[in-house]
Structure formats: structure tokens, C-alpha cells
Amino acid sequence: MKVLCGIGGSDDSFRALDRTVERAAVANDDLTVAVVDNEDSSVAPDDVLERAREAVDEAGIDAEVRRVEGDPGSRLVEIAETEGFEEIVLGGGHTSPMGKITIGSIAEFVLLNAKTSVTLVR
Amino acid sequence: MSDGGYPDAVADEFPPPPTAFTDREDREIEIRPYEGDDEARESLVEMYDTFDPADRAQGIPPGGEKRIREWLEAILGDDCYNVIAWCGDEPAGHATLVPDDDAYELAIFVHQEYQRAGIGTHLIRALLGHGQANDVRKVWLTVERWNRAAVSLYKKIGFETSDAESFELEMGLRLNDDAGDEPDEGGGN
């Protein structure tokens, strides 16, 4: 399957990255990792790129890691549509001190606008 | 919470627990703080184990006794404030304040057998009274937009919306004056 994994540097995005890379190695997915702008993230885009390349190398898969600038949600949807991706994978949100799950703004936009299936990794 | 902030004005004074009242179904309800009592904790586990899954909000209460116990472990800690509404020896509802940087996150649960009887209003007022008495300054919560009953209850109490951009509304309340405190940066979560 042709999979687009969008990550911006939040904890849940790294969890999504690891899980998607792991799955790609087993399922032979055609994976692209898009490093997007996330203003809520404390990790710089270059460090996120580095982290993604490491994950791909460690898994020994042939996946593209790409920097995607601009509005993260709409860019991901646009890339998925123009390049024929079948699935978008994103982090599944963060958990408050109370234990409440909150979905990030990127995931909200993608969920409501994508034509492809969307997977949120918990 | 996000950086939406809190109301400038301090909320009304709320009555600290214990408080007692008769609910709209003529049941005698008493609200008491939870103070580390094992028996009360077991009663809460039972309440949440029979909690209607349709009343879950953003993943809580979790399903299954094991995950309920883990969750309660985190929110019944010494650094949290909890009150329970009792009908005899059965919990009808539970409300909690969990620390988050310089503020507390609030959640409230009323068991389906005790809903629509006015217990939620008493329960949240007692929790905020408990917080006020313990010098809690700022409280925030999130609530699903479609949950109109909850949103109107929080507004009536004095909560103001701090973030309306997401699926869930985020609301804040100032419980005590924070003279001498740091200026509001809105703690991260």
C-alpha cells in the first residue's frame, strides 16, 4: 500500500512514525514520511527529519523522508491526492493529566478533508 | 491548557464539602471529599465498572476493571482533589481536580442511574469549594461541543471558553486570586 506518514515532532507523531515504519517493513508498504510544520512541537524540523531517517535506516526499508513546508493539514491532503497515496497515517493525539485524549489540529483537518483512509496511531 | 487563558474575574465562593441535599428523585445525597479511604476507592471502581460506555468522554472513564484501577491510581493521588457524591454507601458521582503545571484539570462523572437529578451541579460546586479551600487558583477542562447540558452547566458555574478551535471546547475558571503569582502564560498540558 502507498502510505503517507505525516509527523511534526510531537510525542504522538513519533509513535506514529515508529509504528508505520515497523508495519512497512512487514507489509512491504511504499512509505513516504512527510516532516511538516507543527507550531505546537518543541522539536525543530531538522531534528525531526534526522529522527525519521534514523527510523527508516534502522528498519532497513526503502522509504522517502521529505520536508513539507506550509500549512501541515492541507499540504498532507494535497500530497496524498496528487501523488496517489492510499492512506495517511498521523499521531493519535495526546493525553491530558486527567487521561482525556485530545486530537491535534493537523489530525482534525486531515480527518475532515482527506479522500483517503486516515489512520491515527494510539 | 492552551494559551487561551482564564477569566480576569475570580469566581463566586463555592461551599466546601461535606454538603448534603435531596435530589430531584427524592434521594438523600451527601458529598464528601475523598481522603485516601480504601473502601471508597473500591466503591468508585464499582461505579466506573458499571458506567455506561455511551457516557465516556475523550476516552475516560476507561473500560475494564484493570484500566479503571490504573486511571484511578493517577487521579486519586495525594496531589489531586476529589469529591464523591454518596447515596447511602453507593457513589452516585465523582469529580476530580488533577494538577497540570500551575493549574488543575477538572472532570466530573455522574452514574447513569443518578443523572438528570441535579447531582452534577451540586457535585461540581462542592469540588470547586474543596479546591478553593485548598488554594487552587486556576481550573480548566475540555468538553465535547455537542454535550450541551455540560457546556451550559460549566457556563452557569462561571467557566469561560478559552479555545473553541478544536473538536472539544476548552474552558477556564479562576477560583482564587493569584496576587503575587506569575503572569498568565496558560500552562502547557
UniProtKB/TrEMBL annotation, chain A:
<protein>
    <submittedName>
        <fullName>Nucleotide-binding universal stress protein, UspA family</fullName>
    </submittedName>
</protein>
<dbReference type="Pfam" id="PF00582">
    <property type="entry name" value="Usp"/>
</dbReference>
<comment type="similarity">
    <text>Belongs to the universal stress protein A family.</text>
</comment>
<dbReference type="InterPro" id="IPR014729">
    <property type="entry name" value="Rossmann-like_a/b/a_fold"/>
</dbReference>
<feature type="domain" description="UspA">
    <location>
        <begin position="2"/>
        <end position="122"/>
    </location>
</feature>
<dbReference type="InterPro" id="IPR006016">
    <property type="entry name" value="UspA"/>
</dbReference>
Automatic annotation (TrEMBL), chain B:
<dbReference type="InterPro" id="IPR016181">
    <property type="entry name" value="Acyl_CoA_acyltransferase"/>
</dbReference>
<dbReference type="InterPro" id="IPR000182">
    <property type="entry name" value="GNAT_dom"/>
</dbReference>
<protein>
    <submittedName>
        <fullName>Acetyltransferase (GNAT) family protein</fullName>
    </submittedName>
</protein>
<dbReference type="InterPro" id="IPR050276">
    <property type="entry name" value="MshD_Acetyltransferase"/>
</dbReference>
<feature type="compositionally biased region" description="Basic and acidic residues">
    <location>
        <begin position="22"/>
        <end position="35"/>
    </location>
</feature>
<dbReference type="GO" id="GO:0016747">
    <property type="term" value="F:acyltransferase activity, transferring groups other than amino-acyl groups"/>
</dbReference>
<feature type="domain" description="N-acetyltransferase">
    <location>
        <begin position="29"/>
        <end position="176"/>
    </location>
</feature>
<feature type="region of interest" description="Disordered">
    <location>
        <begin position="1"/>
        <end position="39"/>
    </location>
</feature>
<dbReference type="Pfam" id="PF00583">
    <property type="entry name" value="Acetyltransf_1"/>
</dbReference>
<keyword id="KW-0808">Transferase</keyword>
